[in-house]
Amino acid sequence: MALAVGFGAFGAHVVEGILTPERFDVYQTAVQYHFYHALGLLLIGAVSLYIGESTWFSRSGYCLLAGVCIFSGTLYMLTLTDTGWLGAITPIGGVAFILGWVFFAIGVAAEARNQV
């Protein structure tokens, strides 16, 4: 979460005047997804404490972490270094985000089924 705040502040105070508006929009997308999924990681941790540890929750957390690193990380690098080939890797991070949320939903559903 702190890294998302740091990247957001860096974007607002340093790179906004340097990047083109299009590239800054991409940077902002990276920051937004970083924030959303950092909050998701906190949610997974809180649910795990409340419900109990689960393989599905672990998988979910690993996928969200990988998604932040790959999706947001490649967008940060793409905008700051203009390394075009990184754009081809970014969707892998998006898939990791999707899998993370699917695994979380499966974990919650499995736990709800066990409680009945």
What does this structure look like?
With 116 residues, this protein is mainly alpha-helical. It has one domain. The chain contains four helices and no strands. Helix 2 runs antiparallel to helix 3. The longest helix is centred in the N-terminal third of the chain and has 31 residues. The model has no long low-confidence stretch (mean pLDDT 92). It is found in: Membrane. Keywords: Membrane, Transmembrane, Transmembrane helix. This is DUF423 domain-containing protein. Its main location: membrane. It holds the Pfam family DUF423.
Keywords:
membrane, transmembrane, 116 residues, DUF423 domain-containing protein, mainly alpha, 4 helices, DUF423, transmembrane helix
Strand-and-helix sequence, N→C? HHHH
What profile does the largest beta sheet have?
Answer: none
Mean pLDDT: 92
Portion in helices: over 70%
Which structural category do the helix and sheet elements fall into?
Answer: mainly alpha
Regions with pLDDT < 50 over 5+ consecutive residues? none
Please report the total strand number as a whole number: 0
Overall shape: it is: elongated
How is the secondary structure organized here?
Blueprint: H1 2-15, H2 21-51, H3 55-81, H4 90-115
Short note summarizing the structure:
This protein has 116 residues and is mainly α.
